[in-house]
Design a protein that fits this description.
Elements: H1 3-10, H2 18-25, E1 29-33, H3 41-54, E2 65-69, H4 71-80, H5 85-91, E3 99-100, E4 124-126, E5 134-135, H6 137-148, E6 153-159, H7 165-171, E7 187-191, H8 200-209, E8 214-219, H9 223-233, E9 240-247, E10 258-262, H10 267-277
Parallel strand pairs: 1-2, 6-9, 6-10, 7-8, 8-9
Antiparallel strand pairs: 3-7, 4-5, 4-10
Helix pairs in contact: 1-3, 8-9
């Protein structure tokens, strides 16, 4: 991705791309990341100069950030943000098996920005049903967020299959339901049904060794695996918050873990969900 290719990329047929011009008007940033490049300082300056030349006539040019990342700078950046490694590897067609950065975990392949549907009926319990008080969904989200903001924390979300546990966890990183979301750049997710490789214990140990901050989400996580992960994540050298998801097992009360329970949706909410996903489905009486 030398200077001539940069100019062609940014100004196809000699005209600045509209998307780059829009970024300049919004005081945004345009960054080229090229994992095949290895640019020492003089080459970096030449590439950056080509980028500056390409936007010379853009309205708002002075407000537009420009930068070029070669393989070394990309590697350094990823070392600082390990939860984004699955996202990056997916972009370069070298995915990690079963591991994902923030995405539509509950509906793979769909838009993660789909609105979250909920009603005002109490569906979340802080603790098991017989011990914890019932919370509306929004209050439950705020309670889980508050705990996961602190490193060395372990949470467990349980509920019957199909009640929307994974979708609820996505909301913890989404500001549209309520402000105060967890940073999506911290999210690292896997589903044990996908046979992740590396396994969660190995990933967790590496994150702790690097003292990396992360919110680790493990779906369909059995009690014994949760216990092992919880011990690691609550250790003195950890900067990890752990959230595991599992089918509602009544005797699953792991030590050192806050347990939340999600109940099924109301009939009205289920009807709305069905109509949104299947427009042809008739409304029930």
């Amino acid at each position: 991705m030398g200077p001539s290719k940069i100019k062609t990329e940014m100004r196809p047929q000699g005209k600045l791309r509209k998307s780059i011009g829009d970024l300049a008007k919004r005081s945004g940033a345009y960054i080229i990341a090229s994992p095949e490049s290895n640019s020492a300082d003089p080459e970096y300056k030449r590439r950056l100069g080509a980028m500056e030349w390409s936007v010379r006539d853009a309205a708002g040019r002075k407000s537009l950030g420009l930068d070029f990342y070669d393989r070394t700078r990309i590697s350094t950046w990823l070392e600082k943000h390990p939860p984004l490694i699955p996202w990056f590897r997916h972009k370069v067609n070298k995915p990690l098996t079963g591991w994902h950065s923030y995405d539509a975990w509950s509906r793979p392949g769909h838009n993660p920005d789909e609105p979250y549907l909920f009603d005002q009926e109490a569906r979340v319990f802080n603790g098991k049903r017989q011990r914890g008080g019932a919370l509306e969904v929004l209050a439950g989200v705020e309670a889980m967020r508050a705990r996961l903001r602190a490193p060395r924390t372990a949470l467990r979300l349980v509920g019957l299959s199909g009640v929307g546990k994974t979708r609820l966890v996505q909301v913890l990183f989404d500001s549209r339901l309520a402000p105060g979301e967890l940073s999506p750049t911290l999210a690292l997710y896997t589903n044990m049904m996908d046979s992740p490789n590396p396994e969660p214990i190995a990933i967790t140990s590496e994150l702790i060794m690097k003292r990396a901050r992360a919110v680790l989400v493990v779906d369909n996580c059995a009690a014994d695996l949760h216990s092992r992960l919880s011990d690691l994540c609550r250790g003195p050298d950890s900067a990890i918050s752990l959230l595991t998801i599992e089918y509602d097992i009544q005797d699953d009360q792991p030590e050192g873990t806050d347990v939340f329970t999600l109940e099924g949706s109301s009939r009205q909410l289920i009807e709305v969900l069905l109509r949104n996903r299947h427009q042809e489905s008739p409304k029930t009486n």
